[in-house]
Amino acid sequence: MTEKPGNPDACGHWLEDPAHRAFLVRDAHRALDFFDASPRAAGGFHTLDNAGRPLPSALQELHTTTRLVHSYALAQIAGRDDRAGIVDRGMDYLWHAHRDRRFGGYVWSLDGEGVADGTKLAYGHVFVLLAAASAKLAGHPDADRLLADISEVLDRRFWDDSAGLFRDEFTRDWQPFSTYRGMNANMHGAEALLAAHEATGEGEYLSRARRILDFFIAGQAALHGWRIPEHYDADWRPDHGYCGNPMFRPAGTTPGHSFEMARLHLQCWDQSQRPGAEAPAQARALVETALADAWDCDRGGLAYTLHLDGSVDIGTRFWWPVTEAIGALAALIKLDGQAADEAWYRRMWQFADRCLIDHEAGGWFPEAGAEDRHASGQFTGKPDIYHALQADLFPLVRGLSRPARALADLSPLADPQPG
């Protein structure tokens, strides 16, 4: 029988409802149990099918390695032992396999024969920074060397100080091969910089995160009806006609990213001692616009991409925009929760419970398809734990920033799974 994500009759906020909090802890434990099967004997990690069996591909992409390290480090901080040794294995694989000892930096993908794609992408490199910061917060002995190395690479190769943003891509030997600039790598860059500031206290990380968020929110979203253009040219002007990789660089604007940016904006504002009064209203505008544009009123769930006027382009209902809406709504509720925030928060979890969470095997299906059954269009199996685990853990803590330290104080995963 499907377990319910909270008590529908609970007064106040589900964030304080014991039944909902127990549901979050259960879901996190079951996802971690599922992804414990990820380690590959020869090094690196398997991608898992829906039953938790390894898929046959030997391809190992940088964002997969780093997100597993980050996720299991967070879980370890929250009190759950890393029984599969994923943080240790991932840190070793990042240093000895992904790290390019010839040219520096970190290669995008590996297979059983070595480097499959040596391209140097900001998107992958900022996740190395996130993994290093989370590993440091978890007390991993190799975190400092990884943090120092990736910080130097990002600073020397990717950071455009005149713009206050990360450049996107180079060949393996650091030759520029495009003038593309993107929001996605910078958004995750802000996420990683905030984690690095939490781990080290170094102000430059926080300053750079603030510059990135200011550009895309006050500088772009405010000029585009609180929708954020995804793609830019070499001079950081929006490129509205760009269409690239359908997973990482789809055309138009992506409402799931609006939710992520709203949460990160509030995190950065809080971590910066709440300067000014604009951030809460800006974050709310991003969230409310994305909800109004993307929610599927007939079936539930959120459209993947939109045109710049807010009309739906790709209506596929992936899991990750729902998890990011949960995180953003939880942040708004903690700050100055309104009745609509609570209603939307519950609606997201009810949809996830009905259509996305695998109550038998654990983890989340990546897509809700016809008749709300899971579908396998863009993805095969369950691609990662990262988005869903954060949706479970971040609502459990009281504050808006420094989530790792808050999870360490709370230790919600330390006890056996409830109920």
Automatic annotation (TrEMBL):
The record's listing under InterPro entries reads: 6-hairpin_glycosidase_sf, 6hp_glycosidase-like_sf, AGE/CE
Q: Where is the signal peptide?
A: none
- Keyword terms: Isomerase
Does Methyltransferase count among this protein's keywords?
no
| Isomerase recorded as keyword | yes
Entry-linked Gene3D superfamilies: 1.50.10.10
What the record says about family reads: Belongs to the N-acylglucosamine 2-epimerase family.
Name of the molecule in the record: AGE family epimerase/isomerase
Q: Which organism is this entry from? A: Paracoccus stylophorae
